[in-house]
């Protein structure tokens, strides 16, 4: 639990911490409430606490400022919202949207999805990544654990610890190896440098799609060289009991294409027959149109050379404002649905 000084610091900012709901390699996440702690009014949120004294210098100087900068600038219906950032001594508090139903990884341990549900979730993922890539941001750590579920079982992409900006006008090369081995593209395992981080994100989407279809990853954890060989040979198969359609299997194969030049692109995937079978109404252009990311004037820009996080917070009504769709920010929104009658997972041996 947070120590008394932490709780007191947050309480002065109308944030009341209830309990720990998660923990990562570099942080702890608490359920908190903005507003009056004595009654039912207020806004539930997730407060991520990072202790700079307990992480590496590289993380503090490179990855943390980059994560904050990215998260404060991104605004999309399927990306977790950041409401405010505080710094108190060596601790940083990131107050974010609270996803009531946990993450996709835990959900898929107990449930299996229909193709209609897979289609809705995949579209939400594709819309979020089309937006991110369109404004020059790559995630580099997509996995089921980083996809959160709201009260209505819609998705929120989270955890931008390895995200970075890329130059959209040039080849978006990257050198730092990030992410989890299960979701790593073959070019990462092979050691290709620089690699295309956009294509790496697309591969990870394919792994998530496969898991949504089968409740297991396409390539089981093994030695890096062995996994790379399986990836290059396309040595994966759908569970027979999954009963997935041929068009869905075909779409999955286009994501899990080991040849970077032949791997599908998000724009192409959105036009795939299996996507169109669902007849989900959505705008033709799902990416942001403008050349640069525009942050709200009330939000600080945290540079990679400074760890001084200006203290700021919104008034409560700001939380309820809709996503901007004016000239500066154009985002496409697939209609949010309530996931219907999920089937209990029954895996055959």
TrEMBL record:
Keyword Repeat: no
Domain annotation Protein kinase: ranges: 15-275
UniProt xrefs under Pfam families: Pkinase
Matches recorded under SMART domains: S_TKc
Cofactor: Mg(2+)
InterPro entries, A to Z: Kinase-like_dom_sf, Prot_kinase_dom, Ser/Thr_kinase_AS
UniProt entry keywords in alphabetical sequence: ATP-binding, Developmental protein, Differentiation, Kinase, Magnesium, Metal-binding, Nucleotide-binding, Phosphoprotein, Serine/threonine-protein kinase, Spermatogenesis, Transferase, Ubl conjugation
GO cellular component term, pick one: cytoplasm
Record PROSITE patterns: PROTEIN_KINASE_DOM, PROTEIN_KINASE_ST
Keyword Cell cycle: no
GO annotation, biological process: cell differentiation; intracellular signal transduction; microtubule cytoskeleton organization; spermatogenesis
GO MF term (any one): ATP binding
Source species, domain of life: Eukaryota
Annotated protein name in UniProt: Protein kinase domain-containing protein
Organism this protein belongs to: Macrosiphum euphorbiae (potato aphid)
